[in-house]
Request: fold
Amino acid sequence: MSPQPRRRRVFAATALALGTVLPLCVAPLAATAQPSAVAPSVSVGDGTLAADASLAILPLTYQCEAGTSATIVVKLHQSYGEHGGVIDGHVLHTVACTGETTTDTVTIESHHRDPWQAGQATGEVSIFGQDRATAHQPFTIALSR
Reply:
């Protein structure tokens, strides 16, 4: 018998053995694979003003990887009046992440002597996870009394 057919039979037997054994080795790995990380997300809804309008109270909806914490930064800006008055404020909010979509509120104080005004405001919201994963979103909301 020439060496060529013998090599083919050895190769075929090896391929058959690997084709049978390899799936048995990989199946347990697939069954115990960890779920993929939750991509952080955050959004802001329309807000209300405190009685003296010095505070804007905004609802947040966020999601981040379970078992970690994240910092949410909300910056709020409002222009008003004929002469272009400006009101600004921001807040840093640290949250414990559950992996689920969560709703919370933040309170933003005006950084100026002028109070917030009922009407439109713009801003940006960002979420920073422990693994440095971030989400950033500009927004336009209504503030009401």
